[in-house]
Structure prediction request, 385 residues.
Amino acid sequence: MTRLLLSLLLLHTVLSLPAQDGFTITGKVDALKNGDKVFLVYQVEDQQITDSALVQTGGRFVFKGKLDYPVYSGLFLHKNPYVDKLARGEHMDYFRWYLEPTAVQLAAKDSLKNVQVKGSPIHVQHQELRGMLKGNDDQLAALNKEFSALSEAQQKDQAVRDSFITREQTLFNESFKIHLAFAQKHPDSYLSLISLSHTASQPAVNAEAKRVYALLSPALKQTSLGKDIITQLAAPEVTQIGKPAPDFEQAAPDGKRIKLSDFRSKYVLIDFWASWCGPCREENPNLVAAYQQYKDKGFNVLGVSLDAGGQRAAWLQAIEKDQLHWAQVSDLKGWDNAAAKLYGVRGIPANFLVDPSGKIIARDLRGKVLQEKLAEIFGGQAGTK
Prediction:
């Protein structure tokens, strides 16, 4: 259901550290054959990095590289699924873990999916965190399964969807508390910063996140992500209804710089979305209808994409396919989008309605709720074409 109702930031966030250092991966998977190819894929800023290695005698392979920070990475056997898409029903052997600037050993007898990691402190901590989250993850999976088992008509029923969203949000709030408990337990851990980035702007735990952040080591607070969290912690306060909408500037697809303040004197809906976000794409027809009905009466939309640099083409294709004929901007940094951090957006779709004076008057308006709000503002009459 998370895919159907809300796309949330997962623990695939990167962490900025002060100096670049090297990593070495020494792998040994006994069942691999001489000449097999293993791909290493990870994200750095807005760039997807891909490396490959041929398996040598005894199932051995080696990767070396440079990193500024730990990153969530994947090892894939035979092909890179981000380039060569899997066929329907195709399964592949792969393993995901946090890659950090150190020397690690990966070993398994039969396949990549059963690899054991040695020499990686952050991997041990990540396993601990995943264990803490397991019960919550299982409940979310069960809720998703329950929603998927409903008929198509039931899934589209707004009352049914609202009920599931409420239950889902309760589970999310519980997961945020688990992340904060981990961060409090490990004030020197890189993963604690990532957990705080995941939770800092969530209204339900914002006060607790501020307290836990204060306990972090000074070194972590001085990293780029540590400084970003200050902005995220402030987001629930600065984006309250009735507050002036924080201004920002990003580039349109043609390179033109567009500011939120350019829309002063009109009602503007700041729409945070991405080409890969299923719930966003499902909502787009409703947004298009609202825009067409009220655009000539002073209503506008500013789309802010959370696509990454490697997804620029997909972003442009989604704009065209979904007929999003309003201003679109992005810094192509994915979840690190500066405007998203400023507004505390860690789940999409998300939106903020700003009035002509520049004040936030509503947020997270979707479906019928958006139509009702615009009808209230504009009297329910379509603009003249």
About this structure: The two ends are 39 Å apart (CA to CA). Confidence is low (pLDDT under 50) at residues 10-20, 381-385. Residues 121-148 form the longest helix (28 residues).
